[in-house]
Amino acid sequence: LTLSERSLAAVADFIKFGKARRIVVMTGAGISTAAGIPDFRSPETGLYANLAALNLPEPEAVFDLSFFRENPRPFYALAGELHPGTARYRPTVSHAFVALLARRRLLHMLFTQNIDCLERAAGIPPDRIVEAHGSFASQRCIDCKRVFADARMRECVARGEVPRCGGDSDHDDDAGHGTSRSGCGGLVKPDIVFFGEALPRAFFEQMDRAREADLILVMGTSLQVHPFAGLPNFAGETVPRVLFNLELVGSLGTRADDVMVLGDCDAGVRKLADELGWRDELEKTWRE
Ligand code: OAD
């Protein structure tokens, strides 16, 4: 399978003629690699191939709660790279394209698995984003669940310290947990979904948006992690599904109206923007 220019043109016509008013986008780490953030599963550049130095039993252990209890350092080494308070990554063209859809009132919902917060940075309205695997936007104690203050978190991450519940004024006073300064000493973890943990309520509350979609765009994900991986199958049988990815993934390509745009996703969305006559607007949105 290679890129079919004609199919992409057909997708553009579908949008231009007003047949796609509820576009649902599903993204993964592949849309942030152009920003300099490694994905997880790419064979040489992916995070899981490069965690050997951290002495993990297996790469996925970095997101495993029982491993985290024993040794939170590998996760915090990663957090030091990714935390929006310290990291300085810029949204990619793919993020900008989704922001453009939102600005044109065509974005029904974005489901992202990413924890880099670049969707928000790109200007996609928060009420159109479901962070299916959580994010670094908030954090709490894994034992008493008490919310831990953002400013303290940024300090700890910047200093390479593992944050613990308690100590000096480390709790948000407005977090609804009282203003007690005492903590239980438990480990603090960002509200990122670790393996075995439930997805945020918002994922289940918004899941039906995928059923309501009249066009699905899947970008930069290996669709290996459930339940997220099942989302593209919620689309009605006749709803076109477009994949922008380096490789073929999930069930994409098994339906008559699936369109595969194999290759770099930024290049793919630029081609779609060309077909739509939105290219200048896309580049402008991206540079902003
Ligand atoms: P993966 O690393 O599993 O998949 C990234 C996909 O993007 C792969 O199919 C790549 O081929 C593709 N890709 C990489 N760069 C690309 C580019 N420039 N253009 C187009 N495609 C590109 O990442 P996810 O699918 O996001 O969980 O992984 C899902 C979950 O597994 C993550 O959310 C994470 C991980 O365990 C948590 O963080 C909790």
UniProtKB/TrEMBL annotation:
NAD(+) binds at residues 29-33, 39-41, 113-116, 221-222, 245-247, 265. It catalyses: N(6)-acetyl-L-lysyl-[protein] + NAD(+) + H2O = 2''-O-acetyl-ADP-D-ribose + nicotinamide + L-lysyl-[protein]. It comes from the Eukaryota. Its EC number is 2.3.1.286. The active site is at H133. Its cofactor is Zn(2+). GO terms for cellular component: nucleus. Keywords: Coiled coil, Metal-binding, NAD, Transferase, Zinc. Zn(2+) binds at C141, C144, C165, C184. Residues 1-279 form the Deacetylase sirtuin-type domain. GO terms for molecular function: histone deacetylase activity, NAD-dependent; NAD+ binding; zinc ion binding. Binds 1 zinc ion per subunit. The keyword tRNA-binding does not apply. Belongs to the sirtuin family. Class I subfamily. This is NAD-dependent protein deacetylase. It comes from Parathielavia hyrcaniae. The chain holds residues 15 to 302 of 414 of the full protein.
